[in-house]
Amino acid sequence: MTEDSYQLDGTVRVAETLTYYRYVPEKIYEIEQALHCMSEEEQIKVMKYITRITGKRLTFRALAKKISNKKLFRAMKRMDDRLNKY
């Protein structure tokens, strides 16, 4: 049964439910369940460990150091100079 709601402007809001199934290997499922139970600090530790055991073949953007505004503006200026040169 849908929960349709008639609005004053002549439209009807229709609530629909969509079910989607996906199949994942059991190990991946268990790892995902463990990640949902961890705190953010524990997840960061796991990310660092994964980077270490894979020999840095896999790196995470969340672990990358943030670029300072000074370095960012300097890099943008270099790119502008390079593009405007021609």
What's the short story on this structure?
A two-stranded antiparallel ribbon has the order 1-2.
Q: Can you give keywords for this protein?
A:
single chain; 86 residues; mainly alpha; two-stranded antiparallel sheet; 3 helices; flat
Report on this model:
Strands 1-2 form a two-stranded antiparallel sheet. The chain has one domain. The longest helix is centred in the last third of the chain and has 16 residues, at 69-84. A hairpin with a 5-residue loop joins strand 1 (5-6) and strand 2 (12-13). The chain is built from 3 helices and 2 strands; from the N terminus they run ββααα. It has 86 residues and is mainly alpha-helical. The chain is flat, with a radius of gyration of 24 Å.
Query: How is the biggest beta sheet arranged?
Result: 2 strands, antiparallel
Shape: flat
The poorly predicted ranges are: none
Helix content: 40-55%
In order across it, which strands form the biggest sheet?
Answer: 1-2
Rg (CA only): 24 Å
Going by helix content, strand content and strand pairing, the class is mainly alpha
Strand content: under 5%
For this structure, the quaternary state is single chain
The mean pLDDT is 89
Termini separation: 65 Å
Question: What is the count of distinct domains?
Answer: 1
Strand elements, count:
2
User: Helical region count?
Assistant: 3
Q: Output the helix-strand order.
A: EEHHH
Summarize the topology.
Blueprint: E1 5-6, E2 12-13, H1 26-37, H2 40-53, H3 69-84
Antiparallel strand pairs: 1-2
